[in-house]
Amino acid sequence: METGIRGRKAIVCASSKGLGKGCALALGREGVELFILARGEEALQATAEEIRKDSGATVTAIAGDITTPEGRAKVLAACPNPDILVNNAGGPPPGDFRDWSLDDWNAALNANMLTPIELIKATVDGMIERKFGRIVNITSASVKSPIPILGMSNGARAGLTGFVAGLARQTVKHNVTINGLLPGPFETDRVRKTASVAAEKSGKSIDEVLDGRRKENPAGRFGTIEEFGAACAFLCSAHAGFITGQNLVMDGGAYNGTMG
Predict the structure, then answer these.
(1) Distance of CA 25 to the CA centre of its chain
(2) What is the rounded distance in angstroms from the CA atom of residue 159 to the CA atom of residue 8?
(3) Is residue 131 classed exposed, middle or buried when 0-12, 13-18 and 19+ CB atoms within 10 A define those classes?
(4) 114, 115, 137, 181 — which has fewest CB within 10 A?
């Protein structure tokens, strides 16, 4: 399918690895000019070069922390008028809510709720003026089915989802859509980190925990970043203008509900 976004400009946050990288790779293959951002300079530059070799896409790599005003200013200076915005940031650590301080909560809310809102605020009016915009928020399947040990993530990402639900109905008449991609278990560092907590408690190795989780999933495996990126590219396509305010769960069928 020709997605109709060749030549568009996209900001893809936290895209040096994992799901953000999958989205950047997929958008690059569709001829999108990319502005990718991550904190680690070395991994970021390696990903930028990988994308260039993979698709020939134009890639600007910007090292910085998107959860800070300085990081946001840096990427918006490089690309002040994106057509596509993919919001993404690492999730807060797992644990027991009794151990989390107010500072912990504020950091989680800043990274996973307020930062995406700030980026939307900075870019959405330009999209409206140009009559094209695609905003994709990478959140979590925990928005639909909360994960007990990820309480900070559950709360912050649900807050973003609630905010977007109202805004997405206001922008769609201008061909600006806002949707969520809700990953379940994917082959990423994040999954290994959460598995390490379970491994410590159970006395099993991390690999044993991961193998068990793969077998428990209806698909019998974890997802790949390529699958995730392809879904993101479709939501960013010219064909997705009638899809807004939605939350696509990608979890291999783990969410056992009829309204997911």
Answers:
(1) 13
(2) 29
(3) exposed
(4) 114
Q: Is residue 46 part of a domain?
A: yes
Domain-embedded: residue 2: no
Contact 16, 41 (CB under 8 A): no
Q: What confidence category does residue 260 fall into, taking pLDDT thresholds of 50, 70 and 90? A: low
Q: Is residue 40 in a domain?
A: yes
Phi, psi of 16 (to 5 degrees): -80, -20
What pLDDT, on a 0 to 100 scale, did the predictor assign at position 33? 98
Can you tell me the distance from the alpha carbon of 211 to that of 34, in angstroms, rounded to the nearest whole number?
35
Which tokens hold the place of 133? 């915009």
Q: Which domain holds residue 228?
A: 9-184+224-249
Residues 97 and 148 in one domain: yes
Name every residue whose Cβ is closer than 8 Å to that of residue 218 and which is 6 or more positions away in sequence. Answer: 252, 253, 254
How many other CB atoms are there within 10 angstroms of residue 255's CB atom?
A: 17
Residue 180: its H or E element: strand 176-183
Please state, rounded to an integer, the average pLDDT across all residues of the chain. 95
Instruction: Answer yes or no: is 60 within a domain.
Output: yes
Please tell me the distance from the alpha carbon of residue 176 to that of residue 68, in angstroms, as a whole number. 25
C-alpha angle with apex 76: 6 to 166, nearest 5 degrees?
80
